[in-house]
Amino acid sequence: MGRSLKGSLRAVAALALACAGVLAVAPPAPAAPPGPRATAASGCAMDNGARGVAGGAAGDPVSVTRSDGRVDQFQAFYDSTATQGLPFVWHRAQSGPGGAYGAWERVSAGTVGPKASFLTATENAAGGLELFWLDHGGFCHSVQGPDGGAWSTPEGFGLTPFPYHGFLVLFTRSDGTLVAMASSRSTQSSMESRTQSPDDGVWQPPAPMGKVPETDVGLSQPSTVTELPDKRLKVTAREWNRDRYWTITENAPGGGAPDWPGQWRLCATSRCD
Questions:
Q1: Rounded CA gap, 122 and 159, in Å?
Q2: Which residues pair with 135 in a beta bridge?
Q3: Which one of 28, 87, 194, 237 has the fewest beta carbons within 10 angstroms of its own beta carbon?
Q4: CA 77 → CA 50, 58, 86, 154, distances in Å?
Q5: Bridge partners (DSSP) listed for residue 64
Q6: How far apart are alpha carbons 98 and 92 in whole angstroms?
């Protein structure tokens, strides 16, 4: 059997945070002059007027188990000093496997949402962290190196699904290649993928993942991603507003831009056996 999404995807393991005790956070960042919403040169929305004060949680927390056994946690928190009313991504990490967590620290002034506080993360082949969050219908991306420290400036990731058509799904191949997938607004494909080689850590441009051969049919995010014994990826996805499932399998295995067929195939059951 191939590697299942649940068995191999370290990226999106939601973990319930402890409710008892006082939320430990890093000291607030220095105040910045309030003003209208700013947009970074990369296209990500920023709220530079927020001082970095963690308030109530938004959405579900995300846990990433590192290759050395440590666990990193991510959570979107509202900020009473925010000028836009949107939450921000915060991060904390264990000092060692099973050890205590450090203080929560805000990743950036990049805002999450609106309407859905989605975020996901995973460890890359170099041992750093790749973080993604929903930003006004698209996705923003930030990276932390293997030694920790500052996060990179948020950048638009280039995958933009239709509203309500799901979020971003990450999958790690057995050779360490990362694949990101989301439904597509393109008239040429129903879903798109981006691939990061473990050799150089560079994300390749979006690649079309084939078209559903019916008009006015859109897909949600992948429901399952499986690496078959021959290393090809098999993906299943539900229609965004209908209880039908579709599947697509790579033509051939390999890194770089995946070689996807031109069309998805309708499944007889939700399992797409």
A1: 17
A2: 113, 138
A3: 28
A4: 12, 6, 9, 17
A5: 72
A6: 14
Q: CB–CB of 111/137 below 8 Å? A: no
Residue reference for tokens 């031109």: 262
Is the confidence at residue 36, as pLDDT, over 50? no
Answer for the pair 234, 3: CB distance below 8 angstroms, yes or no.
no
DSSP state, residue 215? T
Sheet strands side by side (includes 265-266):
219-227, 233-239, 245-249, 265-266
8 A C-beta contact, residue 172 and residue 13:
no
| Radius of gyration in angstroms for the set of CA atoms belonging to the chain, rounded to a whole number | 19
Phi/psi at 5 (nearest 5 deg)? -60, -45
Q: Are 101 and 94 in contact (CB under 8 A)?
A: yes
pTM (2 d.p.): 0.85
Identify the burial level of 97 via C-beta atoms within 10 angstroms of its C-beta, where 0-12 means exposed, 13-18 middle and 19 or more buried. exposed
Q: What is the pLDDT of residues 58-98, one digit of tens each?
A: 999 999 999 999 999 999 999 999 999 999 999 999 999 99
Q: Which of 34, 131, 38 is nearest to 79 (CA)?
A: 34
The owner of tokens 């981006």 is 194
Contact 170, 180 (CB under 8 A): yes
pLDDT digits (tens, 9 = 90+) for 140-167: 999 999 999 999 999 999 999 999 899 9
d(CA 242, CA 66): 37
Q: How far apart are CA 254 and CA 171, in angstroms?
A: 14
User: What is the spatial distance between Cα 4 and Cα 225, in angstroms, rounded to a whole number?
Assistant: 6
Query: ∠145-98-73 over CA atoms, to 5°?
Result: 45
